[in-house]
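User: Predict the structure for this protein chain, please.
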Amino acid sequence: MPYAASHSVHPNLTFAVRAVCEDVRKQLEGQSPDLAFVFVSHGHSEEFEDLPKLIQQQLGAKVLLGCAGETVVGGGEEIEEGPAVSLWGAILPGAELIPFRLEFGETPDGLISMGYPDDLADHAAETRAVFLLGEPYSSVPDSVINRLEDELPGVPLLGGMASGGGPGANRVFLNDACIEDGAVAVVMRGGPTVRSVVSQGCRPIGPTFVITKSERNIVFELGGKPTIERLQEFMPNLSARDQRLVQSGLHLGLAMSELKPSFQRGDFLIANVIGADPEIGAIAVGNTVRTGQTVQFHVRDAETADEELVHLLEASRSQRTSATRAALLFSCNGRGTRLFPKPHHDASTIRRLLGSIPLAGFFAQGELGPVRGKNYIHGYTASIACFE
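Assistant: Here is the predicted structure, written as C-alpha cells:
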C-alpha cells in the first residue's frame, strides 16, 4: 500500500510521535512518505512548537502539513477529548508537490492573500488538488477561493480551519515549522486521482422561492414578500419535528444552477441563517446572495446528515472505476457527538462504506471543499478527500 495512517492517545507527545511514525514507516515498508498530514489535539498544546520537528526527524516526509484540532480523527475513531495525534502518509509516484505558506493583509483594494507559487495557472491541467489548513482568526478563505478560481478553475480545494482554541491558541504546521497565523498549503500536480465528497447534511423544507430583494448576505424579500413572512406562510404545514428543527437552527439553500426545471437535495449550497430582523422581515446568511437566485429553506439533524453522507459515499463508490485507497476527513466541529447520538459517526461511516483504508483528519472551524465543481468554505459539513 502506498498509503498509511496511525494515531495515538498517549499523553506523552514524544512517545506518541515515535509510535505513529514507526507505524506509518512500517506500513510504507520503511519508506519516508512524499506527503504527510498530522493532526493534534489541544491536549498537547504545550508542545505544539516541538511537534513538526519531532515528526520530521523520525518520518522524513518530503512535505508535511498539519494543524491543531478540537477533535482528531484516526482510523475509524473521532477522539473528541484528551491528547491525540493522528498521522497520515502517502507515497505518490508521478506527483509533484509544491508547499507554500499564505499570509493575509489589508490593502486599499481590500483583503489579499500572499505567498502563492508563481506558476499556478501554468500547470492547471495537471493539478489534482490543493490542500489548505488555516489558522481561523488570521485567514481569509474566500480570498484563497477567489484566487484559485481564477488560476485553477475546477481544481478541488480541500482542508479546513484549525479549531479548538481562541485567538492565538491554534497552530498550523508546514514541514518542520510551527506557525501561529495565516495558512499552509500544498499543490499536488500529477500522481493519483483525488476525488472529493462533500456532505452538507441538510434537507429542504417548504417551496422554492426567487430572491426579489437582497444586498450582499441579506435576503429582504422572497417572491415579492418579506423573507420572514414567506417562512411563516409554510411553517404551519411542517411536521412538529421540522418545526422544532427550524427553531433550533435554520439554513438557506442557494441553487447552484438556475437551469434546472426542478430542484432537489444536493442542488443547493447550504448557507447558515446567522441573523434576522423581524421588523423588516429580513434574514442574514453566511454567504453572499443575489437577486434572482432560487433558494429553499433547509433543516439539519442527525438522521438527515447520516442519510446524506451514506448516499454520497455510495454514489461516489459506484461512479469510480478504481477503489478509494486512502482518505482525509475534514469534518465540522459541530458534528461528532454534538450532532449524532453515537461517537465516531463520520469516520466509521467512511470506513464501513469504503473499507478499512488509511484515514486521518480533524474537526475544523470551517471546512473547504467543492460543490458542483466550485470551492466553498462550509459549516456543519463533512469534506472528504478520496485518493485512488
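Residues 3-199+306-387 form one domain.
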